[in-house]
C-alpha cells in the first residue's frame, strides 16, 4: 500500500504487476465508482488478471473513499480528475495510459481524457457516462436522496438495507452516508458545468463502453456510439449496474482486447500537451464555429 | 544436514502465523478511522473467525491486510492470487484459519524451493 499526497487529499494507491519489473509494458489505471465503492472492486476481480496478462496495474481510492483521505471540501468533478493527473505525475508515468472506469470512475476517465487526450491511449468504461447535464441531474438526485435518508432516518434506512441486502452492504451504506453527510460532496459534485455533445465528438482516445444489458444506462449505448467514432459498446446480458463485480471474466476479456487493439506505443496522440488548455487551439471539428471547451475551469475554487 | 526445520523457515509454523495475522488485523481495524471502532475491541481471534461476519471487514480492509501480508512475508504470499477464483462475497466470508493455512503453504513451498 502506498499513500500519495495530491493537492488537498491523500490517495491510497495499490499497484500490481508481474514480478519481473515494469519497463516497457502498457499501464492501466483503474478508477472505481461513487460512495460505496473502492479500489477493492478491482483488486478482487479483474486487477490480478490484468497483471497476469502483463499489464502494469495502478488502482487508487478516490478522495473521500476507501482508505484515501476524506477532506471536508473539494469534491467538484475537476478535483477528482486533478487527483488522477497528480497520481500519474507522482508515479512517474509520463507516457500514455489506459483508463478503466467503473460508473463514476468512468465519468472521471472521460473528464480526464477530454482535458489531457495526449496522456490517454484508450478508455474502457463500465456502466458509466460522461458528465453531461443529465448525469449532473441524476447525481444531484442520488446524493440528495442519500443525504436525506442517512440524516433523517439513518437507523431505519440501515435496518432496511441489513434486512434486504445484508450486513456488508449496510456497513458500506453507513460509510457512504458519512461521506455525504460530513463532507461537501453532495453540494460540490453537482455544481459542474456539463460536457456538451460537441466536446464529446472531439474526444480523442478510443472508448469501450460496457453495460449491464438490464441497466437503465444501457439505453445510452446508441447515443454514445453515435457521438464517438472510435468506440465500441458492449451490453452484457443478464446484468444491471454491478456488472464489473458480477461478470468480471467478461469485463476482463473485453477490456484486455480493447487495450491490445490500442497500444500506447501505437498511434501518437493527435494533440501535443504543452500549451493546450481548453480552447487554446482553434476548433478542428467540422461545423463548430468555435471550440467548445471540453471541460470548464474548476467551479468555485476556494 | 542436521536441520530441524525440513519444511521451511520458522515462520511457517501455523501458530506463529496466526499471531502475526492477528496483529495485522488489529492494525487494519485501528487504521480504519471511519467507524469509531478501535482495533480488536476485545474480540478474540481464532481460526474460525470470519473476516466479514465477525470482524466486520469490508473488502477494502482485506486489501490493506494483503499489503501487510506482503510486507511481512514478501511476494511469495500473494493474497490477490489466493482469492482470484473466489466471488467477492466468498472472500469477505473467509475465515482467519483458511488464510493461515494459505500463508503456511506458501511459506513451505518457498522454503522447499
Automatic annotation (TrEMBL), chain A:
UniProt-listed Gene3D superfamilies: alpha/beta hydrolase
Compositionally biased intervals (Gly residues): 276-288
SUPFAM superfamilies associated with the record: alpha/beta-Hydrolases
Alphabetic keyword roster: Hydrolase
Biased composition (Low complexity): 266-275
Region (Disordered): 262-302
Pfam families linked to this entry: Abhydrolase_1
Domain AB hydrolase-1: 27-140
Molecular function terms, GO-annotated: hydrolase activity
InterPro entries xref list: AB_hydrolase_1, AB_hydrolase_fold, Carboxylesterase_BioH
Parts forming coiled coils: none
PANTHER family per record: HYDROLASE ALPHA/BETA FOLD FAMILY, PEROXISOMAL MEMBRANE PROTEIN LPX1
Organism: Streptomyces pacificus
Protein name listed in UniProt: Alpha/beta hydrolase
Automatic annotation (TrEMBL), chain B:
InterPro entries in alphabetical order: ACP-like_sf, PP-bd_ACP
Species of the source: Streptomyces pacificus
Origin superkingdom: Bacteria
Name recorded for this polypeptide: Acyl carrier protein
Residue ranges annotated for the Carrier domain, each copy included: 12-99
SUPFAM superfamilies: ACP-like (SSF47336)
Amino acid at each position: 500500500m502506498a499513500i500519495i499526497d495530491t493537492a488537498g487529499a491523500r490517495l491510497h494507491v495499490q499497484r500490481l504487476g508481474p514480478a519481473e519489473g515494469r519497463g516497457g509494458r502498457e499501464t492501466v489505471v483503474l478508477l472505481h465508482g461513487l460512495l460505496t465503492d473502492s479500489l477493492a472492486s478491482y483488486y478482487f476481480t479483474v486487477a490480478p488478471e490484468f497483471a497476469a496478462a502483463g499489464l502494469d496495474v495502478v488502482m487508487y481510492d478516490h478522495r473521500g473513499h476507501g482508505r484515501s483521505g476524506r477532506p471536508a471540501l473539494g469534491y467538484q468533478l475537476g478535483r477528482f480528475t486533478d487527483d488522477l493527473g497528480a497520481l500519474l505525475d507522482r508515479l512517474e508515468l509520463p507516457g500514455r495510459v489506459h483508463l478503466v472506469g467503473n460508473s463514476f470512475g468512468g465519468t472521471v476517465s472521460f473528464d480526464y481524457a477530454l482535458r489531457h487526450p495526449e496522456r490517454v491511449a484508450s478508455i474502457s468504461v463500465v456502466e458509466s457516462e460522461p458528465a453531461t447535464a443529465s448525469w449532473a441531474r441524476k447525481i444531484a438526485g442520488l446524493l440528495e436522496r442519500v443525504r436525506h435518508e442517512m440524516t433523517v432516518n439513518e437507523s431505519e434506512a440501515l435496518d432496511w438495507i441489513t434486512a434486504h441486502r445484508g450486513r456488508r452492504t449496510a456497513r458500506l451504506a453507513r460509510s457512504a452516508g458519512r461521506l455525504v453527510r460530513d463532507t461537501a460532496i453532495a453540494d460540490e459534485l453537482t455544481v459542474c458545468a456539463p460536457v456538451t455533445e460537441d466536446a464529446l465528438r472531439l474526444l480523442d482516445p478510443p472508448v469501450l463502453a460496457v453495460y449491464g444489458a438490464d441497466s437503465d444506462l444501457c439505453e445510452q449505448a446508441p447515443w454514445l456510439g453515435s457521438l464517438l467514432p472510435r468506440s465500441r459498446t458492449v451490453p452484457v446480458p443478464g446484468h444491471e449496474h454491478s456488472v464489473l463485480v458480477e461478470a468480471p471474466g467478461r469485463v476482463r476479456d473485453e477490456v484486455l482486447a480493447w487495450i491490445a487493439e490500442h497500444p500506447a506505443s501505437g498511434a501518437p496522440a493527435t494533440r501535443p500537451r504543452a500549451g493546450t488548455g481548453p480552447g487554446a487551439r482553434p476548433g478542428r471539428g467540422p461545423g463548430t464555429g468555435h471550440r467548445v471547451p471540453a471541460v470548464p475551469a474548476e467551479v468555485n475554487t476556494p | 544436514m542436521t536441520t530441524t526445520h525440513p519444511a521451511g523457515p520458522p515462520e511457517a509454523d501455523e501458530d506463529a502465523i496466526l499471531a502475526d495475522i492477528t496483529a495485522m488485523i488489529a492494525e487494519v481495524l485501528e487504521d480504519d478511522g471511519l467507524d469509531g471502532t478501535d482495533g480488536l475491541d476485545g474480540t478474540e481471534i481464532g481460526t474460525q473467525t470470519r473476516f466479514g461476519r465477525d470482524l466486520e471487514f469490508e473488502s477494502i480492509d482485506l486489501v490493506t491486510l494483503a499489503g501487510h501480508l506482503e510486507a511481512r512475508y514478501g511476494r511469495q504470499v500473494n493474497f490477490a492470487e489466493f482469492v482470484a477464483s473466489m466471488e467477492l462475497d466468498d472472500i469477505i466470508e473467509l475465515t482467519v484459519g483458511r488464510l493461515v493455512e494459505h500463508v503456511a503453504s506458501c511459506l513451505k513451498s518457498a522454503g522447499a524451493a
